[in-house]
Amino acid sequence: MLQPIFNPTQQSNYKVLCLGAHCDDIEIGCGGTLLKLIENYNVFVHWVIFSSNPQRKQEALASANLFLQDVDRKQIIIKDFRDGFLPTQIVEIKEYFEQLKKEFSPDIIFTHYRHDLHQDHRLISDLTWNTFRNHLILEYEILKYDGDLGNPNFFTALEESHCSRKIEYILSAFETQKNKHWFEEETFRSLLRIRGVQSNALHRYAEAFYCRKAIIF
Question: Whole-angstrom Cα distance, residue 126 to residue 180?
Answer without folding.
Answer: 28
